[in-house]
């Protein structure tokens, strides 16, 4: 116990130094900024936008893959990047570009670093898939908006891990999650402000995981994120200490039959779409 406490104090110091030296925090890639500027310019044609996106083959592949996912029920799959842009629309392309950038920002420096990152990324993409599917099934929020909000709500979790990129010793999973509970929200807010994203995403970070959070009578973005977080935790950690689903403020905004709960304590509409959720998550990996 003494050694563990000593290790934790060392790790805390590393993360604190990262917070104090904000120039060390990850910045969005130049190409991402170029694409986002082009997307916000109503004068840029689809062809020019496709050529710009094509400079990042991994992003182009992700957009093609995502446009063919379970979120979009189109009889004919898009064949070209221009088809994808037309199908998704500039708002959706912007959000997927951000999703791609989030993953690409965090370089893996060792096998231990990679193992911990991939474990975290798998959890985050599952949660994002659940959130996007909830948005598609329930309405009120665009699925891609929900997907990006879900990922951005835990960007601080990834930033905590990035603090150890130059360290020979990576914290154990237990100590890492302890650090996340202490620092991830603050780091997430700092990074999203640096990236100049919409304030709505910053508000989501602050309220994520607060099961009692109430924001108006209508189902909204933070409700979807918290419902997704609840189900992702429940699926990945059966022993996690969670309230009953009926105790979540977000749950009480659901009307029958959308609020039916199965024997496992999860929303039946998510259980019945589990394969689609996994397919969405897989497009992000």
UniProtKB/TrEMBL annotation:
Q: Where, if anywhere, are coiled coils annotated?
A: none
Highest taxon above the source species? Bacteria
Q: Which PROSITE patterns match?
A: HDOD
| Domain HDOD residues, every copy | 25-211
Q: What is this protein called?
A: HDOD domain-containing protein
């Amino acid at each position: 116990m003494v050694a563990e406490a000593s290790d934790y104090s060392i790790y805390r110091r590393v993360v604190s130094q990262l917070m104090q030296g904000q120039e060390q925090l990850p910045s969005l890639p130049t190409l991402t900024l170029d694409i986002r500027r082009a997307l916000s310019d109503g004068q840029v044609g689809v062809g020019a936008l496709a050529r710009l996106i094509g400079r990042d083959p991994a992003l182009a592949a992700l957009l093609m893959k995502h446009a063919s996912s379970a979120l979009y029920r189109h009889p004919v799959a898009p064949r070209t990047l221009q088809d994808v842009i037309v199908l998704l629309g500039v708002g959706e392309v912007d959000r997927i570009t951000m999703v791609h950038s989030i993953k690409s920002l965090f370089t893996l420096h060792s096998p231990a670093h990679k193992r911990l990152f991939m474990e975290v990324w798998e959890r985050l993409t599952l949660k994002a898939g659940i959130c996007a599917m909830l948005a598609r099934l329930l309405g009120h929020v665009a699925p891609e908006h929900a997907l990006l909000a879900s990922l951005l709500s835990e960007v601080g979790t990834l930033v905590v891990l990035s603090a150890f990129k130059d360290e020979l010793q990576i914290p154990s999973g237990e100590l890492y999650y302890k650090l996340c509970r202490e620092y991830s929200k603050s780091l997430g807010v700092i990074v999203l402000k640096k990236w100049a994203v919409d304030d709505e995403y910053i508000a989501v970070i602050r309220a994520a995981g607060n099961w009692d959070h109430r924001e108006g009578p209508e189902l909204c973005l933070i409700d979807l994120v918290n419902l997704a977080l609840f189900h992702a935790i429940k699926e990945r950690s059966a022993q996690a200490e969670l309230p009953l689903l009926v105790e979540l403020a977000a749950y009480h905004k659901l009307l029958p039959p959308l609020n039916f709960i199965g024997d496992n304590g999860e929303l039946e509409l998510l259980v019945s779409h589990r394969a689609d959720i996994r397919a969405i998550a897989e497009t992000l990996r």
